[in-house]
Amino acid sequence: MSEARIDKWLWAARIFKTRTIAADACKNGRITIGGMNVKPSRPVKEGEVVDVRKPPVTYSFKILKCIENRVGARLLPEIYENVTDPRQYEILEMSRISGFVDRARGTGRPTKKDRRQMDAFVEPAFFDFGMDEGDGDEDDSENDDD
Fold this sequence. Notes:
5-stranded antiparallel beta sheet; 42% helix; elongated
């Protein structure tokens, strides 16, 4: 098979959990090929690069094989090649480190566990300026002796 629908391919390649989610991503402009938004019915060919925007990252996949039936995870290297820019993974890592700064809408207030994680993340930045109290006392005592 040399062509496949983009929504079926995204589902078959396990990029989206269901075909409905893949089709919705196409309709909402999160799937692009060559910088152009695509409809769920657009046929894709081998060699094309598909950009999938899953905020905050945009993943890029080069199609190696056009399929419309879901395959096992072990066969994925034969289906597509991940050509995502390494800077996108840095953005993903930064968003994971920053934690709850941009909480998803509708998730409500942070839980006690979330608050503790935020406090553990923030506290070292506020209280550790690289100055030890012991160093300042020793300097003062040396000056007093002179």
